[in-house]
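Hey all, quick one. A colleague (J.T.) asked me to put the zinc ion job into the tracker so the inputs and the structure tokens live in one place instead of scattered across chat threads. No bug as far as I know, just bookkeeping. Sequence used:
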Amino acid sequence: MIHWNHDQNGRDWEGLCKTGKSQSPIELSKRSSEHKRLPNLNFQNYFEHFGKPSVLKNTGYSCSFKIGKTRFSENLEVSGADLKGTYIAEELHFHWGSMVSKGAEHIINGRRYDVEIHVVHRRSIYNTMQEAILHPDGLAVLAIMIRIPDYRESGNYTDARHRDIHRNLTTLGDLAPHSHKRFLIAPPSIEEFLRLLIRIREYHSTTLVHPAVTVGIILKKLEIHNFYSYHGSLTTPDCQESVHWIVFREPLIVKLNPIFNIFLLRNVDRKNVLNNFRVSQPIYNRKIIYNI
Ligand SMILES: [Zn+2]
């Protein structure tokens, strides 16, 4: 599909998205999964600095952070658990809702979280993403939930929103084009990383992120032994069924202020990118493992 959008959260997508029997996302629960103790996940180089600045891009569907090689020219890799081999990290992006709705893709024990991060990997035996996507074992995606405790639950959301817009504008001034600050910030946390989104508000805009940022800032606070594992698909067209999903059960807690930048990204029609998640898909006879 060339032209597609999230207006109906994927209900109108064609082809494999419509006919596939191993589609994602799905609803996950302890009750409907097989409990198992899998080997540990092994992360290589996730806390290493990059060799050069990374590109953060507004794709019109999400914001995408390109994961390159480390300063020692090595890949970021994950293996272990029930993964069939070694998988190389390629890219990470986000799915979200709106100022009044939650937008994670996988449902965990009946709950939809606010935001979901996808760290996309290709199996090392395949040379490119295009090649990997053609194989059932081509990709591995780590899914990480974000919960925003001061969002909606505070009941004072509008005030927070206005405060935030004001703060963003102030920061934007500091980050005016050609300012040295554009390049010198190495985000030490997921919150600081999200602040960079003010630089890519416009469709197809990009910014460079300091090489000292690590993907490990996401994993640092995560309970990495607590996850679901199953076989599924990409959650955007063409929905290829080439993904080994590892969905972490416990969310990261992130404050509203930095997350707010994500709601201000604009798409090709200059509208805010909102609710860019796909609705849950039938499980059919797939086996879902819950790692204990
Ligand atoms: Zn995704």
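Adding what we noticed when we looked at it: The first strand starts at residue 27 and ends at 28. Residues 154-184 have pLDDT under 50 and may be disordered.
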